[in-house]
């Protein structure tokens, strides 16, 4: 069974074609600048060099059509014809309380996704556009929606409820939902496999650290708490997002700086985080380079990020009544030894001890804690695509 995994952003599209017999990637690629001048497809069949196709793509339908052509191309295609694509799995960011798991996509499901647009106005619309484009181009192929929020539907009420009038939760769905669920689920399952232990009884903190970042407390294999909230803005300091702040800052800026709600939202989502503190960049590599050159604000941005992650690891250990494993994943978590080291400094009282030699790696699946460390620490590259493909295979196969 071949599953095509689609992940649509507002002007981009990532994809992988996966053979589910052995979960091997047949082809993968990235479409950038959809609807913008200079749109391009970067396609790679496994075992061949990457192919760059520059072509005007006015919308996501054009982009998906070009992807499908690339997949069956006689030179760099991965299959002979589209009949070999057995199912399509779509990443959907926000499912609200409507979806506690992945689902076969129907008209009713798409309508329910549209009802969640207010909760994820930047993410759900392109996800839905991608689904509708695939339905038009591949009308007979079953499709499955896999939600970033679904894994976190196991959180207890005390984790997800906000201390606001309860009617706001009942009437408007204002609560913590959490994101990156597919990634957190994947790495927690991998660490159980690597340690040879059952998720039942384990207490894990997974750290998905990238430009967007979140931590999840996982108890008995289920999401117990997570840092992102009703939207992906809450929680950790991120590339351009502020994370946790005093909510009164919003009204203060509106009243004293005469900013509009839209301007404040833009400031918190796109101009804050390590970019706002450092004034250098939202890319941690640029910030690290500036810090090495003596830029104090860049150094402060790194220290604030590491401190926030460290603080949440400690709080989640307390919330779960203990801690067995910490997992680092995603772009920064997988590739920055210095960040991992600085985050874990000060957590020795929990039983976390990092081995500097083991930690000196990038993008490898490996334990980085010392042999006698009470709490094990792992680096595990995430693989959201294979998780989406697995759910798609299971549901489409029925």
From TrEMBL:
CDD domains: ASKHA_NBD_AcK_PK. InterPro entries: Ac/propionate_kinase (IPR004372), Aliphatic_acid_kin_short-chain (IPR000890), Aliphatic_acid_kinase_CS (IPR023865), ATPase_NBD (IPR043129). It holds the Pfam family Acetate_kinase. SUPFAM superfamilies: Actin-like ATPase domain (SSF53067). Mg(2+) binds at residues 7, 384. Pathway: Metabolic intermediate biosynthesis; acetyl-CoA biosynthesis; acetyl-CoA from acetate: step 1/2. Its cofactor is Mg(2+); Mn(2+). GO terms for molecular function: acetate kinase activity; ATP binding; magnesium ion binding. One of its GO terms (cellular component) is cytoplasm. It is found in: Cytoplasm. Its EC number is 2.7.2.1. GO terms for biological process: acetate metabolic process; acetyl-CoA biosynthetic process. Keywords: ATP-binding, Cytoplasm, Kinase, Magnesium, Metal-binding, Nucleotide-binding, Transferase. It comes from the Bacteria. Substrate binds at residue 91. ATP binds at residues 14, 208-212, 283-285, 331-335. The active site is at residue 148. It catalyses: acetate + ATP = acetyl phosphate + ADP. The record marks 180, 241 as: Transition state stabilizer. PANTHER family: ACETATE KINASE, ACETATE KINASE-RELATED. Belongs to the acetokinase family. NCBIfam families: ackA (TIGR00016). Homodimer. Catalyzes the formation of acetyl phosphate from acetate and ATP. Can also catalyze the reverse reaction. This is Acetate kinase. The gene is ackA.
């Amino acid at each position: 069974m071949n599953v095509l995994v689609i992940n649509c952003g507002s002007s981009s599209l990532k994809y992988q074609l996966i053979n589910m017999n052995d979960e091997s990637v047949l082809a993968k690629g990235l479409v950038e600048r959809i609807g913008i001048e200079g749109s391009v497809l970067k396609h790679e069949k496994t075992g061949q060099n990457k192919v760059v196709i520059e072509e005007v793509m006015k919308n996501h339908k054009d982009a998906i059509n070009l992807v499908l052509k690339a997949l069956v191309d006689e030179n760099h295609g991965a299959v002979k014809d589209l009949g070999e694509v057995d199912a399509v799995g779509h990443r959907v960011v926000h499912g609200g309380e409507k979806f506690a798991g992945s689902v076969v996509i129907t008209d009713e499901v798409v309508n329910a996704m549209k009802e969640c647009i207010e909760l994820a106005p930047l993410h759900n619309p392109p996800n839905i556009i991608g689904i509708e484009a695939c339905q038009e181009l591949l009308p007979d192929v079953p499709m499955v929606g896999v939600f970033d929020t679904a894994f976190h539907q196991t959180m207890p009420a005390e984790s997800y409820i906000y201390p606001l009038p309860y009617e706001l939760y009942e009437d408007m769905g204002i609560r913590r939902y959490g994101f990156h669920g597919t990634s957190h689920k994947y790495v927690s399952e991998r660490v159980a496999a690597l340690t040879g232990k059952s998720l039942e009884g384990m207490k894990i903190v997974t750290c998905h650290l990238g430009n967007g970042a979140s931590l999840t407390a996982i108890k008995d294999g289920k999401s117990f708490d997570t840092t992102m909230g009703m939207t992906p803005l809450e929680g950790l300091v991120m590339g351009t997002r502020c994370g946790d702040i005093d909510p009164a800052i919003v009204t203060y800026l509106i009243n004293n700086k005469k900013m509009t709600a839209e301007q404040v939202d833009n400031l918190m989502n796109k101009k804050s985080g390590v970019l706002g503190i450092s004034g250098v960049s939202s890319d941690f590599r640029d910030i690290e380079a500036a810090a090495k050159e003596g830029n104090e604000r860049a150094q402060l941005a790194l220290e604030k990020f590491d401190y926030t992650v460290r603080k949440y690891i400690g709080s989640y250990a307390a919330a779960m009544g203990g801690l067995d494993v910490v997992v680092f994943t995603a772009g920064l978590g997988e590739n920055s030894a210095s960040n991992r080291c600085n985050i874990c400094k000060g957590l020795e009282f929990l039983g976390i001890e990092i081995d500097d030699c083991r930690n000196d790696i990038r993008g490898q699946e490996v334990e980085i804690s010392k042999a006698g460390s009470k709490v094990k620490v792992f680096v595990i590259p995430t693989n959201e695509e294979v998780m989406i493909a697995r759910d798609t295979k299971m549901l489409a196969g029925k």
